[in-house]
Amino acid sequence: MIALSNITKRFGDNTVLSDVSLSMPEGSVTALIGPSGGGKSTLLRCINLLETPSGGTLRIGEASVTFSERGRLSRAETQMIRQQTGMVFQNFQLFPHRTAIENVMEGLITVLRWPREKARARAVALLEKVGMAHKADAWPATLSGGQQQRIAIARALAPSPRVLLCDEPTSALDPELAAEVVDVLAQLAREGTTMVMATHDLRLASQIAQTVIVLDGGQVVETGPARQVFDAPERERTARFIATLK
Ligand code: ADP
Ligand code: MG
């Protein structure tokens, strides 16, 4: 279970997230939608502490951290949260000078200090899961965007995080390549992977998310079952926004 209570994030005078409270049960898939600049990326980055919230409490499994404007997190607290999350970015962000399999092994070796052979075995299994075992020794630059993103998903899953965070995982891809990535994420969802994803891809969101959260101006303005939010949103502004995605 992941729970955010009153998470606030300010950049100087600019409040980018205000009092965001959400809970996501284990095994659930949550889609974050909303206009550009609404705070989706910042919220995901706060969950894995790429950004430090200005206030509120974040709980992931047994790990819980309370933030304040002045308080600094200890390295141990940051590590504790970060190890429970895996992140997938819009533009893949693979290490360009590592092969596909080395990308997946990297964190296991450098952060978790796994022996190389154990890391390799785990990476092979994950590459198989995302349909990329045949490209284990390929360089990222030689792969399509859909293939790179599938490797990025394998890399994010390598340390067995409790939650997979995806920031517009299909936005940089042509439709047929996006479909490969949607298939992988749908498979993970069926297997019970807990996911939170920011997306403008209605097909992705409606196919795999149970819950949709609409973030607008840094606030949760609507939340509900995916079908309900997409087909019968409560707010006029949400309806207009969803219409732009169709
Ligand atoms: P979304 O992903 O929904 O498009 P973002 O989370 O990227 O929204 O951005 C929300 C707001 O936060 C925007 O106004 C953006 O300019 C601001 N913002 C994001 N990151 C930073 C940063 N590092 N410094 C200052 N402002 C930021
Ligand atoms: Mg964003």
Helix content range: 25-40%
Question: Which range does the strand content fall in?
Answer: 25-35%
Named once each, the bound ligands are:
adenosine-5'-diphosphate, magnesium ion
Number of strands: 10
How does the major sheet shape up? Answer: 6 strands, mixed
- Pick out the low-confidence regions: none
Element string (H = helix, E = strand): EEEHEEHEHHHEHEHEEHH
Query: What order do the strands of the largest sheet run in, or round the barrel if closed?
Result: 6-7-8-3-9-10
Query: What separation lies between the terminal Cα atoms?
Result: 31 Å
Mean pLDDT: 95
Rg for CA atoms: 18 Å
Instruction: Work out the helix count.
Output: 9
Category by helix and strand content: alpha/beta
- Shape descriptor reads globular
Please specify the SSE layout and strand pairing.
Blueprint: E1 2-11, E2 14-24, E3 29-33, H1 40-47, E4 55-60, E5 63-67, H2 75-82, E6 85-88, H3 100-110, H4 116-129, H5 145-157, E7 163-167, H6 175-190, E8 195-198, H7 202-208, E9 211-216, E10 219-225, H8 226-231, H9 236-245
Parallel strand pairs: 3-8, 3-9, 6-7, 7-8
Antiparallel strand pairs: 1-2, 1-4, 4-5, 9-10
Helix pairs in contact: 3-4, 3-5, 4-5, 5-6, 6-7
The structure holds adenosine-5'-diphosphate and magnesium ion.
Adenosine-5'-diphosphate is lined by residues 11, 14, 16, 34, 36-42, 198.
